[in-house]
Every structure is written in C-alpha cells, then in structure tokens.
C-alpha cells in the first residue's frame, strides 16, 4: 500500500482506528494521512479555531506515539462521508480506516449512514476498526462467491493482513431442500448427497484460489451451507478471526445479507474488524460528481 487515509473525530471511539491506521502504515511503509472534518455551516472564525485545535490535538496524538513526522494532517469542511470519499480519491489512497462505536452493529452502520455512503460512492476499500490494536492481523475470514469482486476482496485482504492466515469461505444455499431431498430432524442431508453438491463447488473454489495473487501456504478454503451472514459470523467466532473481509457492490448477496434481518440478529455488533472492499466503477467520475458542492 502507498497511502492510507484515516478519518478521526478525536473521540475515544476513533482512537482504535487511528492506532490501526498508524500500525498499518508502519507495517507496509505507506504514507499516512489523517483527516478531520468540520461542519461546513459554522462561521469562518469558529472553523479556523476548531481547525487549529484539531491540528494541535492530532499532533499531540502522533507525538505521544513517537510518530510526530509520519502523518500528513488534513482539516476540511463538509459532510464527513463526502469529504472522506473525495479526499481518498484526491490522494489516490489505497485504504480508508474508520472507527465504530462499540454498541453499534455493522447492519446499523450500513443503513443510510456514513459507512453505507462510503461503500456506495468510494472506490477505496474501507476498514472498520472495532478492536484494540495488539499487533498485525493474525486470522482473516474472507467471504467469496467466485466473482471478480470476490477476487479483489481476497487480494485487498491479503495486503491489509500480509502475515495473517486467510480462510476463504463460500456459503451456498440448496433450493427447496426440504422438498427435493431426504433430511433428518436437524435438516441435514445424507453425506452422499452433500458430497455430490459440494464436489463441483470445492473444485471451483480451488480454481478460484489458484488464480489469486496471495500466499497460498497461508490460504485455506471452506464450504458451508447456510445464509452468508450467519455462516461468516460463525466462522469468525470459531476461528477467533480478527478481520472479516466482504466485497461490496449493489447486487452482492453479501451486502443484501448485511442489510437484511439476519444481519441484525447475527451481527448486532461487528464480530471483529471489518474490511469492506468496493468495486472499481467504470463510471466513478460521473458518480463522484455527486460529491461536489452545488452552487
């Protein structure tokens, strides 16, 4: 990674995102940019005072960590999500790092808020930091569906977590299972029938992994029947993963799952840090024009 952008509001909840961004910059040698956004409707003198105070507070944070000269600080006016997306584009940033309140879930964060809008308009992957930083990421779960978006998600996850073990998880659904197959009381089907379903999926997952630009010796694969959100949540808890990576595009089952009732139940709070990897849009310039102020 060449450039990392982290947005802070200088609250306690953003401290962890700041620390993770700083750690990633040190691990990867990336340039770190710190962004603070002020309400654009404030009088100019109040803006100037807040800007000076914010720059001072950020400088103190960097100095306290012995990194006084590492980051470039930006203070700008506007709506936070618009300013973050535009700044990431202007800097050609490789990653946006933001924090989340410990009591707010990923599904809640997605619905019509800063994170949802960043995912919609930004070409830059977004890292949502929940946990304290104790070192580099160790274990990452990546949701995949064999699409180009899934490919980009896995490869970005490998760059964000270069020393982590990656498990690529594909969740599949058996249509009308109860009507077309023999099931037991728990809803399971005979091993012979499950093997017949999973064999081609496993082969496709293996071929998919072989095409990825990542360390194969640290990459595992897993097939699981069930809803995407619940399966990924189970895998995060089972493996004690510290990073969950998801591809984000308008029609992705991963996003639809996150916005549905299953996500509200299964992910009432983020299970760990979450990496949201967006598609690179061909019409990014047209979409970005929506970010510009109107006159």
From TrEMBL:
The keyword Membrane does not apply. Residues 1-130, 137-277 form the UspA domain. Keywords: ATP-binding, Nucleotide-binding. One of its GO terms (molecular function) is ATP binding. Belongs to the universal stress protein A family. It comes from Actibacterium naphthalenivorans. Coiled coil: none annotated. This is Nucleotide-binding universal stress UspA family protein.
């Amino acid at each position: 990674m060449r450039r990392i952008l982290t947005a802070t509001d200088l609250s306690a909840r953003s401290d962890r995102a700041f620390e993770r961004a700083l750690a990633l910059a040190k691990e990867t040698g990336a340039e770190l940019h710190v962004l603070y956004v002020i309400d654009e409707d404030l009088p100019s003198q109040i803006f100037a005072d807040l800007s000076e105070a914010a720059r001072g507070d950020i400088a103190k944070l960097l100095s306290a960590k012995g990194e006084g000269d590492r980051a470039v600080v930006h203070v700008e006016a506007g709506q936070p999500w618009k300013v973050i997306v535009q700044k990431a584009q202007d800097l050609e940033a490789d990653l946006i790092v933001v924090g989340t309140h410990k009591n707010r879930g990923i599904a809640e964060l997605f619905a019509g808020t800063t994170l949802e809008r960043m995912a919609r308009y930004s070409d830059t992957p977004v890292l949502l930091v929940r946990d304290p930083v104790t070192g580099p990421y160790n274990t990452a779960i990546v949701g995949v569906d064999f699409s180009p978006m899934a490919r980009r998600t896995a490869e970005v996850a490998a760059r964000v977590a270069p020393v982590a073990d990656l498990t690529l998880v594909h969740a599949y659904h058996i249509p009308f299972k109860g009507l077309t197959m023999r099931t037991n009381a728990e809803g399971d089907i005979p091993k012979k029938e499950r093997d017949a379903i999973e064999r081609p999926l496993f082969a496709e997952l293996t071929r998919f992994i072989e095409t990825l630009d990542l360390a194969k010796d640290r990459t595992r694969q897993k097939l699981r029947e069930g809803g995407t959100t619940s399966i990924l949540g189970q895998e995060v808890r089972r493996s004690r993963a510290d990073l969950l990576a998801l591809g984000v595009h308008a029609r992705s089952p991963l996003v639809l799952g996150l916005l549905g009732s299953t996500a509200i139940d299964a992910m009432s709070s983020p299970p760990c840090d979450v990496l949201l990897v967006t598609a690179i849009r061909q019409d990014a310039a047209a979409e970005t024009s929506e970010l510009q102020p109107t006159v």
